[in-house]
Structure formats: structure tokens, C-alpha cells
Design brief:
By secondary structure, this protein is an all-alpha fold. The chain has 22 helices and two strands. Strands 1-2 form a two-stranded antiparallel sheet. It is 77% helix and 2% strand. It has helices spanning 26-35, 37-59, 61-65, 67-94, 97-117, 121-148, 155-179, 187-192, 195-205, 212-218, 221-231, 234-254, 260-265, 267-285, 288-301, 307-331, 337-361, 368-389, 396-401, 410-439, 441-462, 471-482; strands spanning 2-5, 18-21. The chain is globular.
Length: 492
């Protein structure tokens, strides 16, 4: 995974030629992997509850009798994540990325313990809320921390590693679910195990530095330079420091406190937030978490009634999601964020139409073999959906949101954008089965296809290409747009 960098690309050195790769700096890769453990927590927790709920119902009679309690247990993590994203956006700017990550780990560990020891359904719901708070804070912090410690040429691939950890966590959770399909009384271990990655991250994060950009702008320039010296070659550190000095001067010239209200008063911030939040919303409204939360249910809707077969096919889908993210890590810094998102959405639209048509045809068929044929077409559509979504609309929204905001507003805007993602996630997760029961599964997938078309138009109209740009160049890009210059810098 090697990227060639010339004089006109960000990070080039006085016209010199250099080769930068994803694996060329083990220090940066180590920072990325440790920060990305928060993504593993995120992915594991969102996936494991679908299997754990089967055994929770066996132990708690009130949960078995109440579909509302079941929905609350599943969705309370999303509610916590919305709150956590808001807290994370603020704490990133005030405490820094490192302390915020440590805080998220502690909350997540506490939530895992509460879930594992819960004597009743209401304490379990409290544990789910605490875990959600940790997930929400981590979902904001990890992409920003990774982005600010990454050379601009490979920033997209490194930030996408966090998404790989999310999809890897989901795959792990499906494996756990499948392994325990014949075992009862294991839900406490399944949910409690979610705290293990948080303990590992808490320990490792203690020995890692704060984000160099946050240090330079908010705390200690000499400490920031020491971190930068481990990330960049000596001949490049001066260039990075010059850009940070320019950022400091600009912050001082603003002479105003950072506030949520200014995001909507400043046109530059407003259009940047529109692009970032819009991507996050469309990531959810194109249906990804209907597939991840309700994968086994969709498989059964397609005519495969066996629980174990449905879970096995869901494991395969989760594996495809993780493998597709690896492809995205390579592509995002080669073909760019915008082209990758557009290609992804085109494929997602076709896949959703295939799914819709297959579900329209299943009820009309008269024989079991024909039903199974159309059910198989639905599974193919599901697989194609994951194959197109995972390399593009999976990592692109998180990558773009980690790099499009000015330093002073990166935490706040990133937090608000993550809140949009989680709220959209909640809406889709809570409405999918109801809508499917009301208008039919085929029509539901057609609605998602229309959303994918709208997302395609949105990306064309509002999302700029940021491949290879420094943070300062991205900020200039928004200024150019505000003042009528739509030209985007050309990058190799």
C-alpha cells in the first residue's frame, strides 16, 4: 500500500520525491491500532446483543413477556451513544484526545461490569446505557486522534482502520453468537467480555502521547514537537511546525470563544458541518444497520427458517463487511473519498433494488423450490450490498469528518456529526421491522434505494475531495467555496 508523493501534494518536501506507505511508520501504526480498539468495542457491542438477548429472555421473565423491554435493552446503547458523542465533542477540545479516550474506557468497563452482574432487566438497561456512553465518546475521539497523528497522504487509510476495527468487532460478535447457539446461561459472559478490549486500551493508552496538534495549539509546543519527530522525517518537521504556527495565529486572530452557536452562524463552518453530518446521516439511512442488526431476521424473511443457518449466513456477511473495509483502507487514499463514496452508493442502489425485487417475487411464487430460488437472489443482493457499502460508505463518513473542520471546532463539529449518525442509527433500527411489517419488505428496501440515490446527489453537490490535503488546505477549501471559488486543489 504505497503512495507516491510529489511536489504538488501535501506533505511533499521542497519539490523532493518520497514514498509513503501505510506500514512505513510503525509508531503511527501503533497509535492507530491502540486508538482503534474503541472501534472494536463499538462493533462487538452492537453485534453481540442480538445473540445475548435470546438468553436474557430465558433468565428474565419480564423481558420475555415485553417486546418493549427487549427493544429498550437493544436500543439503550444507541441512546447512550448519542449522549456520549455530545460529551466527547466537548471533552476532546477541553481535555484532549488522550484523556477523553481514557474516560471512555473507564465508563465502558463500568458498564460491562454492570451488565455482567445485573440482577434484573432494569440494571441491565443501566449497564447498556453506560456502555453506550463509552461507545459514543470513543466514536468521536478515535477518528480525530488518528487523523491528527497521521501524515496527510495516508490519513484516509489510517482513519479507516478504526472502521475496520468496528467491522472486525461485529464479526467477532457474530462468531460468539454462533458459538453459543446451543448453550444457555452465557449472556453474562457475552456482555461482560466487551470490557476486555477496554481494559487493554486503557493500559496501552497510558503509554501513548496526546495528539500533537492538540498539544501544540492548547498545551505544550515542545512536547508536540517531540511527538511530531516520531511521526515525520527530520526534513519535514519544519514544514509541519510552520502549518501549526499558522493555525495558532489564526486562532488568536479570531479572538472569540468556541461555541456551538458559531457552527451555524459561520458560513464556512455551516457548509462543512452540512457535508459531514449529511454523510453520517446517509450512512445510516441507506440501511447498513438494518443489515447488521437484523441480518438473521432478513435471512429468515428470505425463506431460510433455520436459526443456525440464519446466524451462519450473518457471520459470512459480517466477514465480508470486515474484508470490504480492508479494501476501503487501500482505495480511500488512492481514488479519493468522493469517488469512493459515489461508486459505493451506485452499487448500494443496485443491490437494494435487487433485494426489493426478490422480496416482491417471493410471496408470489407457488412452490417451495421457487421460494428458495428467490430467497437465494435476496441473499445475493444482501452480499452485493455489503460488498459495495463496506469499502466506501463505511469508512468515508468517519474519515471526512475527522479532517474537514478547523482545529478549534474539530471536537465540537465531530461530536455533533457523530450525534447525527447515532440518532439516524436509532431511527432506522427502531423503524425497520415496523415499516417492513406495514408496507412489506420489498417496499422497505425500495425506500432505502431511494435514500441511496438521494445520498449520491448529496455527495456530488456538497462533499469536496480531501484526499492528500493538509488540515490547513481543507480549511482554505471551505473559504474558497464561501467566496465563490469552487475549484478544489489538484492532488496526485
Amino acid at each position: 500500500m504505497t503512495i507516491q508523493s510529489f511536489a504538488e501534494s501535501s506533505g511533499s518536501l521542497q519539490g523532493s520525491y518520497q514514498r509513503i506507505s501505510y506500514f512505513s511508520n510503525s509508531y503511527v501504526l501503533r497509535l492507530t491500532l491502540v486508538a482503534g480498539l474503541g472501534g472494536l468495542l463499538f462493533g462487538y457491542d452492537t453485534g453481540v446483543i442480538s445473540g445475548a438477548l435470546l438468553y436474557i429472555k430465558d433468565e428474565f421473565e419480564d423481558v420475555k413477556r415485553s417486546s418493549f423491554l427487549q427493544e429498550t435493552i437493544v436500543s439503550m446503547t444507541i441512546v447512550g451513544s448519542v449522549i456520549g458523542a455530545a460529551i466527547g465533542g466537548w471533552s476532546n477540545d477541553v481535555w484532549g484526545r488522550k484523556k477523553t479516550t481514557l474516560f471512555a474506557d473507564l465508563v465502558f468497563i463500568l458498564g460491562s461490569i454492570v451488565m455482567a452482574l445485573a440482577p434484573n432487566s432494569y440494571i441491565l438497561i443501566l449497564g447498556r446505557l453506560l456502555v453506550g456512553l463509552g461507545v459514543g465518546v470513543a466514536s468521536v475521539t478515535a477518528p480525530v486522534y488518528i487523523a491528527e497523528a497521521s501524515p496527510s497522504e495516508i490519513r484516509g487509510g489510517l482513519v479507516s482502520t478504526n472502521v475496520l476495527m468496528i467491522t472486525g468487532g461485529q464479526f467477532l460478535s457474530y462468531l460468539v453468537n454462533l458459538a453459543f447457539t446451543e448453550v444457555s446461561g452465557t449472556w453474562r459472559l457475552m456482555l461482560g467480555a466487551a470490557g476486555v478490549p477496554a481494559v487493554v486500551q486503557l493500559f496501552l493508552m497510558i503509554f501513548l502521547p496526546e495528539s500533537p496538534r492538540w498539544l501544540y495549539l492548547k498545551k505544550d509546543k515542545s512536547e508536540a514537537i517531540a511527538v511530531l519527530s516520531k511521526i515525520y522525517d527530520p526534513c519535514r518537521i519544519g514544514e509541519e511546525i510552520d502549518m501549526l504556527d499558522a493555525a495558532v495565529e489564526e486562532e488568536q486572530m479570531r479572538k472569540s470563544r468556541v461555541s456551538y452557536f458559531k457552527v451555524f452562524r459561520s458560513k464556512e463552518l455551516r457548509i462543512a458541518f452540512l457535508a459531514g453530518a449529511g454523510l453520517q446521516a446517509f450512512q445510516q439511512f441507506t440501511g447498513i444497520n438494518t443489515v447488521m442488526y437484523y441480518g438473521p431476521t432478513i435471512v429468515q424473511m428470505a425463506g431460510f427458517s433455520s436459526n443456525q443457518l440464519a446466524l451462519l449466513l450473518s457471520v459470512i456477511i459480517a466477514l465480508m463487511n470486515a474484508l470490504g473495509t480492508i479494501v476501503g483502507i487501500y482505495l480511500i487514499d488512492h481514488i479519493g473519498r468522493k469517488k469512493l463514496a459515489l461508486g459505493s452508493l451506485f452499487g448500494v442502489t443496485i443491490s437494494l433494488i435487487i433485494l426489493a425485487v426478490s422480496f416482491f417475487l417471493v410471496p408470489s411464487s407457488q412452490t417451495g423450490s421457487t421460494n428458495r430460488l428467490y430467497g437465494s437472489v435476496a441473499i445475493v443482493g444482501l452480499a452485493l450490498y455489503i460488498a459495495f457499502f463496506s469499502p466506501g460508505m463505511g469508512p468515508v463518513p468517519w474519515t471526512v469528518n475527522s479532517e474537514i473542520y478547523p482545529e478549534a471546532y474539530r471536537g465540537i463539529c465531530g461530536g455533533m456529526s457523530a450525534m447525527v449518525n447515532w440518532i439516524s442509527n436509532f431511527i432506522v433500527a427502531q423503524s425497520f421491522l415496523s415499516v417492513a411489517n406495514g408496507v412489506g419488505v420489498g417496499t422497505t428496501f425500495l425506500i432505502l434505494a431511494v435514500m441511496a440515490i438521494l445520498a449520491f446527489v448529496f455527495v456530488v453537490a456538497f462533499v469536496p475531495e480531501t484526499k492528500g490535503l493538509t488540515f490547513d488546505e481543507v480549511e482554505k477549501l471551505w473559504k474558497d467555496r464561501v467566496h465563490g471559488n469552487q475549484r478544489e486543489p489538484l492532488k496526485s
